[in-house]
From TrEMBL:
<keyword id="KW-0812">Transmembrane</keyword>
<feature type="domain" description="Metallo-beta-lactamase">
    <location>
        <begin position="41"/>
        <end position="252"/>
    </location>
</feature>
<dbReference type="InterPro" id="IPR052159">
    <property type="entry name" value="Competence_DNA_uptake"/>
</dbReference>
<dbReference type="InterPro" id="IPR036866">
    <property type="entry name" value="RibonucZ/Hydroxyglut_hydro"/>
</dbReference>
<dbReference type="InterPro" id="IPR035681">
    <property type="entry name" value="ComA-like_MBL"/>
</dbReference>
<feature type="transmembrane region" description="Helical">
    <location>
        <begin position="7"/>
        <end position="25"/>
    </location>
</feature>
<keyword id="KW-1133">Transmembrane helix</keyword>
<dbReference type="InterPro" id="IPR001279">
    <property type="entry name" value="Metallo-B-lactamas"/>
</dbReference>
<keyword id="KW-0472">Membrane</keyword>
<protein>
    <recommendedName>
        <fullName>Metallo-beta-lactamase domain-containing protein</fullName>
    </recommendedName>
</protein>
<dbReference type="Pfam" id="PF00753">
    <property type="entry name" value="Lactamase_B"/>
</dbReference>
Length: 291
């Protein structure tokens, strides 16, 4: 009996050793990867910047992200170095609260705008806990506004929205989507734009020069706002980007009937290849030679 238990333990040890090696080689490299995770009717985008680690933009409205990360990193490790919460709606925030229970990111960004919800209260409690934890010596949180920039490894991020003046008046907002953090990823000649749930009309308020000077030719990836809904339409803005791939994060047979047919037609009209998580599952882009 003792011999059989020993054999089982050896098999388990070997299994985890092999799994650790495979995951380590997957996550330690000099390539940039962007994964728009299939989390149903929500947003969650995992960016791996080579040896610099991983960033998560939003976390969906369930625990799917945590389950996905458990396959990427050997449990209980969680190598998420940065978290970005574009806005506090449940389909972006719920999974983040789960992640913060076991992950210790170096940076968390969110907009400092009051939003009444239990999820928001829990999120702020999690941030307070991380800030006061004496075992964590390198934790920071930030409120981003247009014009801000930061680096994640060799990848540069430019904040296009929200505008500081707009934020000051955000108390009177009817639509919290409109304070969504909009980030432009700039890695040499490769660029991607992450838009949260921003309304189409708000795109017209973004300083065109702010993003044009960072985009070399066409935009490679556009994360379409608000799951492809009609209120994210702004064909003039999309035409100014000339996106190659337009990614819609959306749940299969969702009750909102997203994506809206007119939004898809707009994107196709500007020459963009539309890809959807409800059809293709998790959508992954691997970019070599940019780091």
């Amino acid at each position: 009996m003792k011999s059989e238990i020993t054999k089982v333990l050896v098999v388990i040890t070997v299994f985890y050793a092999i799994r650790f090696f495979v995951l380590w080689t997957q996550n330690v490299n000099n390539n940039l990867s962007i994964k728009v995770l299939d989390v149903g009717q929500g947003d969650a985008i995992l960016i791996n910047s080579g040896n610099s680690g991983s960033m998560l933009i939003d976390g969906g409205d369930n625990w799917d992200v945590d389950w996905y990360l458990s396959k990427q990193f050997v449990f209980p490790r969680c190598n998420i170095n940065a978290l970005v919460v574009t806005h506090p709606h449940a389909d972006h925030l719920y999974g983040i609260n789960r992640i913060l229970k076991r992950c210790k990111p170096n940076l968390v960004t969110f907009n400092d705008v009051y939003y009444s919800s239990k999820l928001s209260e829990v999120f702020l409690e999690n941030i307070q806990h991380l800030s006061s934890d004496k075992k964590i010596t390198n934790f920071n949180f930030a409120h981003l506004k247009s014009g801000d920039t930061f680096y994640f490894g060799k990848v540069k991020f430019i904040v296009l929205w929200p505008d500081e003046t707009f934020l000051k008046n955000a108390t009177y907002l009817n639509n919290i989507n409109d304070i969504s953090t909009v980030l432009l990823l700039d890695a040499g000649k490769f660029e991607a734009l992450f838009t949260g749930d921003l309304s189409g009309e708000i795109f017209s308020k973004i300083d065109k020069e702010l993003y044009k000077k960072h985009i070399d030719g066409d935009l490679e990836i556009l994360k379409v706002p608000h799951h492809g809904s009609a209120d994210g339409r702004n064909i003039d803005f999309y035409r100014s980007l000339s996106p190659r791939y337009c990614v819609i994060s959306v749940g299969l047979d969702n009750r909102y009937r997203h994506p809206d047919k007119r939004q898809v037609e707009d994107l196709e009209q500007v020459g963009c290849k539309v890809v959807r998580t409800d059809i293709s599952g998790t959508i992954e882009f691997n970019i070599s030679g940019v780091l």
